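Journal club prep — side note

Before the paper discussion, L.F. wants everyone to see what a predicted structure for a comparable chain looks like in C-alpha coordinate form. Sequence:
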Amino acid sequence: MKIKMRAIPAQIFNRSVVCLLLSTLLIGWGGVLPAKGALHLWGIQEIYSNADGSVQFVEFFSASSGQEFVEGSNLIAEKQDGSDSNTFTFPSNSPAPTGNKTLLMATPGFADVPGGVEPDFTIPENFLFTESASVTFAASTLDNGTISYDTLPNDGVKSLGPDGVNEMNSPKNFAGDEGQLDLGDGDGENQAPTVSITSPESGATLTVNETVTIVAEASDSEGEVSQVEFLDGETSLGTDSESPYELETGLEGVGEHTLTVKATDDQGATATSNPVTVTVEAPAPAEPVEITTVTSEEGNLSLEWQGGAGPFALQQKTTLSDEVWTDVAVTEKKSGSVSQVEPHRFFRVADRGRVSPIPMTAHLSGDFQQQEQPVETGGRGSATLMLEGSRLTFNIRYSQLTDVATAAHIHGPANATANAGVMISLVPFADGGFGKAG
Protein backbone atom coordinates (compact mmCIF):
# COMPACT_ATOMS: atom_id res chain seq x y z
CA MET A 1 0.00 0.00 0.00
CA LYS A 2 1.23 3.38 -0.90
CA ILE A 3 0.73 6.33 1.27
CA LYS A 4 0.84 9.73 -0.26
CA MET A 5 2.14 12.58 1.91
CA ARG A 6 1.80 16.24 1.15
CA ALA A 7 4.00 18.84 2.70
CA ILE A 8 2.15 21.47 4.75
CA PRO A 9 3.45 24.98 4.24
CA ALA A 10 5.27 26.19 7.34
CA GLN A 11 3.16 29.35 7.55
CA ILE A 12 -0.09 27.33 7.71
CA PHE A 13 1.33 24.85 10.21
CA ASN A 14 2.59 27.52 12.57
CA ARG A 15 -0.72 29.34 12.53
CA SER A 16 -2.55 26.10 13.35
CA VAL A 17 -0.25 25.38 16.25
CA VAL A 18 -0.64 28.91 17.60
CA CYS A 19 -4.42 28.67 17.38
CA LEU A 20 -4.34 25.31 19.15
CA LEU A 21 -2.14 26.63 21.92
CA LEU A 22 -4.29 29.73 22.45
CA SER A 23 -7.41 27.56 22.62
CA THR A 24 -5.76 25.35 25.19
CA LEU A 25 -4.67 28.35 27.28
CA LEU A 26 -8.13 29.90 27.21
CA ILE A 27 -9.74 26.67 28.26
CA GLY A 28 -7.20 26.18 31.04
CA TRP A 29 -7.49 29.70 32.48
CA GLY A 30 -11.27 29.58 32.26
CA GLY A 31 -11.23 26.74 34.76
CA VAL A 32 -9.03 28.37 37.42
CA LEU A 33 -10.15 32.04 37.55
CA PRO A 34 -13.61 32.25 39.10
CA ALA A 35 -15.23 35.73 39.30
CA LYS A 36 -14.70 37.56 42.60
CA GLY A 37 -16.73 40.33 44.29
CA ALA A 38 -15.51 43.40 46.14
CA LEU A 39 -16.11 45.22 49.41
CA HIS A 40 -13.26 47.74 49.68
CA LEU A 41 -15.20 50.77 48.45
CA TRP A 42 -17.38 51.22 51.52
CA GLY A 43 -16.54 54.32 53.61
CA ILE A 44 -17.78 55.39 57.04
CA GLN A 45 -20.23 58.26 56.65
CA GLU A 46 -21.61 58.82 60.16
CA ILE A 47 -21.26 57.48 63.73
CA TYR A 48 -23.54 58.14 66.71
CA SER A 49 -23.94 57.34 70.40
CA ASN A 50 -26.30 58.41 73.15
CA ALA A 51 -25.05 59.20 76.68
CA ASP A 52 -24.88 55.62 78.03
CA GLY A 53 -23.96 53.85 74.76
CA SER A 54 -27.19 51.85 74.64
CA VAL A 55 -28.14 53.42 71.30
CA GLN A 56 -25.38 53.63 68.69
CA PHE A 57 -25.06 53.38 64.94
CA VAL A 58 -22.39 53.31 62.22
CA GLU A 59 -23.42 54.25 58.69
CA PHE A 60 -21.47 53.22 55.56
CA PHE A 61 -21.77 54.68 52.08
CA SER A 62 -20.56 53.34 48.72
CA ALA A 63 -20.75 55.05 45.36
CA SER A 64 -19.81 51.82 43.55
CA SER A 65 -21.65 48.67 42.54
CA GLY A 66 -20.43 45.18 43.35
CA GLN A 67 -19.53 45.97 46.99
CA GLU A 68 -22.00 43.59 48.62
CA PHE A 69 -19.43 40.92 49.58
CA VAL A 70 -18.87 42.02 53.21
CA GLU A 71 -19.40 38.62 54.83
CA GLY A 72 -16.49 37.76 57.13
CA SER A 73 -15.04 41.29 57.12
CA ASN A 74 -14.55 43.26 60.35
CA LEU A 75 -15.73 46.59 61.77
CA ILE A 76 -13.35 47.56 64.58
CA ALA A 77 -13.78 50.16 67.36
CA GLU A 78 -10.57 50.83 69.26
CA LYS A 79 -9.16 53.14 71.93
CA GLN A 80 -6.38 55.34 70.53
CA ASP A 81 -3.94 54.06 73.17
CA GLY A 82 -4.75 50.44 72.22
CA SER A 83 -6.04 49.60 75.70
CA ASP A 84 -9.40 48.27 74.52
CA SER A 85 -11.21 47.34 71.29
CA ASN A 86 -14.44 45.84 69.97
CA THR A 87 -14.82 43.86 66.73
CA PHE A 88 -17.97 43.15 64.74
CA THR A 89 -17.74 40.51 62.02
CA PHE A 90 -20.33 40.76 59.26
CA PRO A 91 -22.36 37.51 59.30
CA SER A 92 -23.57 37.84 55.70
CA ASN A 93 -23.25 39.94 52.59
CA SER A 94 -25.17 43.18 52.14
CA PRO A 95 -28.10 43.57 49.77
CA ALA A 96 -27.30 44.46 46.18
CA PRO A 97 -26.73 46.46 44.03
CA THR A 98 -24.63 48.78 46.18
CA GLY A 99 -24.11 51.84 43.96
CA ASN A 100 -24.93 55.07 45.88
CA LYS A 101 -26.27 53.07 48.81
CA THR A 102 -25.91 53.32 52.59
CA LEU A 103 -25.46 50.40 54.99
CA LEU A 104 -26.62 50.81 58.59
CA MET A 105 -25.17 48.95 61.59
CA ALA A 106 -27.00 49.75 64.86
CA THR A 107 -27.58 48.48 68.40
CA PRO A 108 -30.43 46.09 69.33
CA GLY A 109 -33.92 47.62 69.27
CA PHE A 110 -32.76 50.58 67.15
CA ALA A 111 -35.89 50.48 64.98
CA ASP A 112 -38.06 50.88 68.11
CA VAL A 113 -36.26 54.03 69.28
CA PRO A 114 -38.17 57.23 68.34
CA GLY A 115 -36.61 58.42 65.09
CA GLY A 116 -34.88 55.07 64.47
CA VAL A 117 -35.08 52.85 61.37
CA GLU A 118 -34.50 49.15 60.75
CA PRO A 119 -30.73 48.52 60.63
CA ASP A 120 -29.10 46.26 58.07
CA PHE A 121 -26.86 44.66 60.72
CA THR A 122 -26.92 44.65 64.53
CA ILE A 123 -23.89 45.62 66.63
CA PRO A 124 -23.64 45.25 70.44
CA GLU A 125 -24.43 48.07 72.87
CA ASN A 126 -21.41 50.23 73.77
CA PHE A 127 -19.61 49.02 70.66
CA LEU A 128 -18.27 52.55 70.04
CA PHE A 129 -16.00 54.31 72.52
CA THR A 130 -16.87 57.97 73.16
CA GLU A 131 -13.42 59.33 74.06
CA SER A 132 -10.04 59.18 72.25
CA ALA A 133 -10.94 56.37 69.89
CA SER A 134 -11.45 55.33 66.28
CA VAL A 135 -13.72 53.12 64.22
CA THR A 136 -12.42 51.28 61.14
CA PHE A 137 -13.86 49.12 58.37
CA ALA A 138 -10.81 46.92 57.94
CA ALA A 139 -11.44 46.07 54.27
CA SER A 140 -11.87 49.66 53.09
CA THR A 141 -9.25 51.38 50.94
CA LEU A 142 -10.95 54.78 51.15
CA ASP A 143 -9.74 57.74 53.21
CA ASN A 144 -12.91 57.55 55.31
CA GLY A 145 -12.47 53.85 55.97
CA THR A 146 -11.41 55.06 59.43
CA ILE A 147 -12.77 57.89 61.61
CA SER A 148 -10.56 58.93 64.53
CA TYR A 149 -11.82 61.34 67.17
CA ASP A 150 -11.06 62.84 70.56
CA THR A 151 -14.72 63.08 71.55
CA LEU A 152 -17.76 61.39 70.03
CA PRO A 153 -20.82 63.59 70.76
CA ASN A 154 -23.16 61.78 73.15
CA ASP A 155 -25.80 64.44 73.70
CA GLY A 156 -28.32 62.19 71.97
CA VAL A 157 -28.69 64.64 69.07
CA LYS A 158 -25.40 65.13 67.25
CA SER A 159 -23.39 62.60 65.26
CA LEU A 160 -19.84 62.69 63.90
CA GLY A 161 -18.86 62.66 60.23
CA PRO A 162 -15.54 61.76 58.57
CA ASP A 163 -14.52 65.43 58.40
CA GLY A 164 -14.73 65.72 62.18
CA VAL A 165 -17.82 67.96 62.12
CA ASN A 166 -20.67 67.33 64.57
CA GLU A 167 -24.04 67.56 62.85
CA MET A 168 -27.65 66.51 63.45
CA ASN A 169 -27.84 62.71 63.16
CA SER A 170 -29.56 61.13 60.14
CA PRO A 171 -29.38 57.30 60.15
CA LYS A 172 -30.26 55.75 56.78
CA ASN A 173 -30.46 52.06 55.90
CA PHE A 174 -29.91 50.23 52.60
CA ALA A 175 -33.61 50.46 51.71
CA GLY A 176 -33.39 54.27 51.91
CA ASP A 177 -35.39 54.66 55.13
CA GLU A 178 -34.04 57.68 57.01
CA GLY A 179 -34.62 58.75 60.61
CA GLN A 180 -33.47 61.27 63.20
CA LEU A 181 -32.92 60.61 66.89
CA ASP A 182 -33.42 63.03 69.77
CA LEU A 183 -32.30 61.24 72.92
CA GLY A 184 -30.82 64.26 74.71
CA ASP A 185 -31.39 65.09 78.36
CA GLY A 186 -33.35 68.21 77.37
CA ASP A 187 -35.06 69.39 74.27
CA GLY A 188 -32.06 68.91 71.95
CA GLU A 189 -31.40 72.62 71.58
CA ASN A 190 -28.04 73.81 70.34
CA GLN A 191 -25.49 74.27 73.11
CA ALA A 192 -23.55 77.53 73.40
CA PRO A 193 -19.80 77.58 72.65
CA THR A 194 -17.12 78.09 75.30
CA VAL A 195 -14.70 81.02 75.19
CA SER A 196 -11.99 82.57 77.36
CA ILE A 197 -9.23 85.20 77.18
CA THR A 198 -5.73 83.76 77.47
CA SER A 199 -3.81 87.03 77.06
CA PRO A 200 -3.39 89.59 78.53
CA GLU A 201 -3.71 88.44 82.11
CA SER A 202 -6.07 90.24 84.44
CA GLY A 203 -4.21 93.02 86.30
CA ALA A 204 -1.83 93.80 83.42
CA THR A 205 -0.67 97.40 83.04
CA LEU A 206 -0.24 99.26 79.76
CA THR A 207 0.77 102.78 78.89
CA VAL A 208 -0.91 105.22 76.54
CA ASN A 209 0.14 104.63 72.91
CA GLU A 210 0.97 100.97 73.69
CA THR A 211 -0.78 98.32 71.60
CA VAL A 212 -2.01 95.09 73.15
CA THR A 213 -2.72 91.73 71.51
CA ILE A 214 -5.85 90.12 72.92
CA VAL A 215 -5.79 86.33 72.46
CA ALA A 216 -8.85 84.12 72.99
CA GLU A 217 -9.64 80.40 72.94
CA ALA A 218 -13.07 79.30 71.70
CA SER A 219 -14.64 75.94 70.87
CA ASP A 220 -18.06 74.40 70.23
CA SER A 221 -18.93 70.83 71.21
CA GLU A 222 -21.62 70.45 68.56
CA GLY A 223 -20.37 72.43 65.59
CA GLU A 224 -18.00 75.26 64.76
CA VAL A 225 -17.20 78.73 66.09
CA SER A 226 -18.09 81.19 63.34
CA GLN A 227 -16.86 84.42 64.99
CA VAL A 228 -15.16 85.83 68.07
CA GLU A 229 -15.81 89.49 68.93
CA PHE A 230 -13.42 91.47 71.16
CA LEU A 231 -14.96 94.02 73.53
CA ASP A 232 -13.68 96.83 75.73
CA GLY A 233 -16.64 97.29 78.02
CA GLU A 234 -19.54 97.75 75.59
CA THR A 235 -17.29 98.93 72.74
CA SER A 236 -16.49 96.45 69.98
CA LEU A 237 -12.78 96.44 69.13
CA GLY A 238 -13.09 94.02 66.20
CA THR A 239 -13.74 90.39 65.28
CA ASP A 240 -11.82 87.31 64.18
CA SER A 241 -13.35 84.30 62.41
CA GLU A 242 -10.36 81.94 62.34
CA SER A 243 -8.34 80.26 65.04
CA PRO A 244 -6.08 81.40 66.63
CA TYR A 245 -8.51 84.13 67.65
CA GLU A 246 -6.58 87.33 68.33
CA LEU A 247 -6.70 91.07 67.83
CA GLU A 248 -3.98 93.71 68.06
CA THR A 249 -5.41 97.02 69.18
CA GLY A 250 -4.97 100.11 71.32
CA LEU A 251 -7.11 100.98 74.33
CA GLU A 252 -8.46 104.51 74.43
CA GLY A 253 -8.23 106.49 77.63
CA VAL A 254 -6.22 106.33 80.83
CA GLY A 255 -7.74 104.14 83.52
CA GLU A 256 -9.22 100.67 84.00
CA HIS A 257 -10.49 98.69 81.00
CA THR A 258 -12.67 95.57 81.18
CA LEU A 259 -12.00 93.21 78.29
CA THR A 260 -14.29 90.37 77.23
CA VAL A 261 -14.69 88.20 74.13
CA LYS A 262 -17.98 86.95 72.71
CA ALA A 263 -18.09 83.72 70.67
CA THR A 264 -20.85 82.83 68.20
CA ASP A 265 -21.29 79.30 66.83
CA ASP A 266 -22.56 78.16 63.42
CA GLN A 267 -26.14 78.00 64.69
CA GLY A 268 -26.16 81.44 66.28
CA ALA A 269 -25.63 80.50 69.93
CA THR A 270 -23.37 82.91 71.82
CA ALA A 271 -21.23 82.90 74.95
CA THR A 272 -19.18 85.64 76.63
CA SER A 273 -15.91 85.07 78.47
CA ASN A 274 -15.11 86.04 82.02
CA PRO A 275 -13.80 89.63 82.10
CA VAL A 276 -10.13 90.53 82.18
CA THR A 277 -9.22 93.87 83.69
CA VAL A 278 -6.21 95.87 82.52
CA THR A 279 -5.07 99.36 83.45
CA VAL A 280 -3.85 102.00 81.02
CA GLU A 281 -1.49 104.52 82.59
CA ALA A 282 -0.24 107.83 81.29
CA PRO A 283 3.43 107.78 80.27
CA ALA A 284 5.97 109.29 82.58
CA PRO A 285 6.04 113.05 81.99
CA ALA A 286 8.75 114.11 79.59
CA GLU A 287 10.61 117.38 79.68
CA PRO A 288 8.99 119.98 77.44
CA VAL A 289 10.44 120.45 73.98
CA GLU A 290 12.87 123.38 73.78
CA ILE A 291 14.31 124.55 70.46
CA THR A 292 18.03 125.14 71.02
CA THR A 293 19.38 126.00 67.59
CA VAL A 294 17.90 127.73 64.56
CA THR A 295 19.96 128.11 61.40
CA SER A 296 18.80 129.84 58.22
CA GLU A 297 20.86 129.76 55.06
CA GLU A 298 19.70 130.66 51.54
CA GLY A 299 16.05 130.12 52.43
CA ASN A 300 16.65 126.75 54.11
CA LEU A 301 15.78 126.43 57.78
CA SER A 302 17.38 123.91 60.19
CA LEU A 303 16.33 123.36 63.79
CA GLU A 304 17.61 121.38 66.75
CA TRP A 305 15.82 120.83 70.03
CA GLN A 306 15.93 118.98 73.34
CA GLY A 307 13.41 117.38 75.70
CA GLY A 308 10.24 115.56 74.75
CA ALA A 309 9.55 111.85 74.26
CA GLY A 310 9.12 111.69 70.48
CA PRO A 311 8.37 111.08 67.75
CA PHE A 312 8.37 114.75 66.81
CA ALA A 313 6.46 116.69 64.17
CA LEU A 314 7.97 119.82 62.65
CA GLN A 315 4.93 121.99 61.88
CA GLN A 316 4.25 125.30 60.22
CA LYS A 317 1.65 128.05 59.77
CA THR A 318 1.49 130.83 57.20
CA THR A 319 -0.04 133.20 59.76
CA LEU A 320 -0.62 132.75 63.46
CA SER A 321 -4.34 133.19 62.87
CA ASP A 322 -4.50 129.92 60.87
CA GLU A 323 -6.57 127.34 62.73
CA VAL A 324 -4.36 124.33 61.93
CA TRP A 325 -0.64 123.63 62.18
CA THR A 326 0.54 121.63 59.14
CA ASP A 327 3.09 118.83 59.47
CA VAL A 328 6.23 119.48 57.43
CA ALA A 329 8.17 116.45 58.66
CA VAL A 330 7.87 113.73 61.31
CA THR A 331 11.05 112.33 62.85
CA GLU A 332 12.38 110.34 65.77
CA LYS A 333 15.43 112.61 65.86
CA LYS A 334 15.72 115.89 67.70
CA SER A 335 16.53 117.85 64.59
CA GLY A 336 14.88 118.73 61.32
CA SER A 337 15.04 121.02 58.32
CA VAL A 338 12.75 122.75 55.83
CA SER A 339 13.74 123.70 52.28
CA GLN A 340 12.90 126.96 50.53
CA VAL A 341 11.16 128.70 53.41
CA GLU A 342 9.08 131.62 52.23
CA PRO A 343 9.07 134.81 54.28
CA HIS A 344 6.76 135.10 57.26
CA ARG A 345 6.32 131.42 58.03
CA PHE A 346 5.89 130.25 61.63
CA PHE A 347 7.32 126.94 62.87
CA ARG A 348 7.04 124.78 65.97
CA VAL A 349 8.04 121.26 67.15
CA ALA A 350 5.19 119.09 68.47
CA ASP A 351 5.90 116.08 70.70
CA ARG A 352 3.79 113.21 69.35
CA GLY A 353 4.62 111.16 72.43
CA ARG A 354 2.21 113.37 74.36
CA VAL A 355 -0.67 112.87 71.94
CA SER A 356 -2.95 109.87 72.49
CA PRO A 357 -3.51 107.65 69.44
CA ILE A 358 -6.91 107.86 67.80
CA PRO A 359 -8.56 104.40 67.69
CA MET A 360 -11.23 103.61 65.12
CA THR A 361 -13.31 100.59 64.22
CA ALA A 362 -15.01 99.70 60.96
CA HIS A 363 -17.38 97.08 59.64
CA LEU A 364 -16.73 95.93 56.09
CA SER A 365 -19.51 95.82 53.56
CA GLY A 366 -19.90 95.40 49.82
CA ASP A 367 -23.10 97.43 49.81
CA PHE A 368 -21.39 100.50 48.42
CA GLN A 369 -19.79 98.64 45.55
CA GLN A 370 -22.08 99.36 42.62
CA GLN A 371 -22.48 95.97 41.00
CA GLU A 372 -24.94 95.24 38.22
CA GLN A 373 -26.04 92.03 39.90
CA PRO A 374 -25.31 92.19 43.64
CA VAL A 375 -24.99 88.84 45.41
CA GLU A 376 -26.41 88.38 48.89
CA THR A 377 -23.98 86.26 50.94
CA GLY A 378 -22.94 85.49 54.51
CA GLY A 379 -19.70 87.42 53.99
CA ARG A 380 -18.57 89.51 56.91
CA GLY A 381 -15.62 91.58 58.00
CA SER A 382 -14.29 94.08 60.49
CA ALA A 383 -11.31 96.31 61.00
CA THR A 384 -9.49 98.21 63.70
CA LEU A 385 -7.46 101.27 62.79
CA MET A 386 -5.26 103.49 64.93
CA LEU A 387 -3.87 106.86 63.90
CA GLU A 388 -0.73 108.07 65.65
CA GLY A 389 0.38 111.33 64.13
CA SER A 390 0.80 110.49 60.46
CA ARG A 391 1.13 106.74 61.06
CA LEU A 392 -1.91 104.53 60.39
CA THR A 393 -1.96 101.02 61.90
CA PHE A 394 -4.76 98.68 60.81
CA ASN A 395 -5.93 95.10 61.25
CA ILE A 396 -8.57 93.99 58.74
CA ARG A 397 -10.36 90.62 58.81
CA TYR A 398 -12.88 89.08 56.40
CA SER A 399 -14.56 85.68 56.04
CA GLN A 400 -17.26 83.60 54.33
CA LEU A 401 -16.83 85.12 50.87
CA THR A 402 -18.33 83.10 48.02
CA ASP A 403 -15.10 83.44 46.01
CA VAL A 404 -11.52 84.64 46.38
CA ALA A 405 -11.27 88.40 46.99
CA THR A 406 -9.77 90.31 44.06
CA ALA A 407 -9.09 93.75 45.57
CA ALA A 408 -9.24 95.73 48.80
CA HIS A 409 -8.58 99.38 49.57
CA ILE A 410 -9.37 102.30 51.85
CA HIS A 411 -11.23 105.25 50.35
CA GLY A 412 -10.80 108.86 51.40
CA PRO A 413 -10.72 111.55 52.39
CA ALA A 414 -14.46 112.12 52.76
CA ASN A 415 -17.15 112.59 55.37
CA ALA A 416 -19.53 109.81 56.35
CA THR A 417 -22.06 110.53 53.59
CA ALA A 418 -19.76 111.30 50.67
CA ASN A 419 -17.96 109.09 48.15
CA ALA A 420 -14.21 109.23 47.64
CA GLY A 421 -11.51 107.64 45.55
CA VAL A 422 -8.99 105.03 46.61
CA MET A 423 -6.51 106.44 49.11
CA ILE A 424 -4.67 103.27 50.24
CA SER A 425 -4.47 99.97 48.34
CA LEU A 426 -4.32 96.97 50.68
CA VAL A 427 -2.80 94.61 48.10
CA PRO A 428 0.81 95.10 49.35
CA PHE A 429 -0.31 94.19 52.88
CA ALA A 430 -2.06 90.91 51.94
CA ASP A 431 0.65 88.43 52.82
CA GLY A 432 0.21 85.39 50.60
CA GLY A 433 -2.54 87.05 48.56
CA PHE A 434 -6.27 87.22 49.06
CA GLY A 435 -8.61 84.30 49.74
CA LYS A 436 -12.20 83.66 50.77
CA ALA A 437 -11.14 84.57 54.30
CA GLY A 438 -8.15 86.34 55.75
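L.F.'s comment for the group: The helical segments are 10-32. Keep this in mind when we get to the figures.
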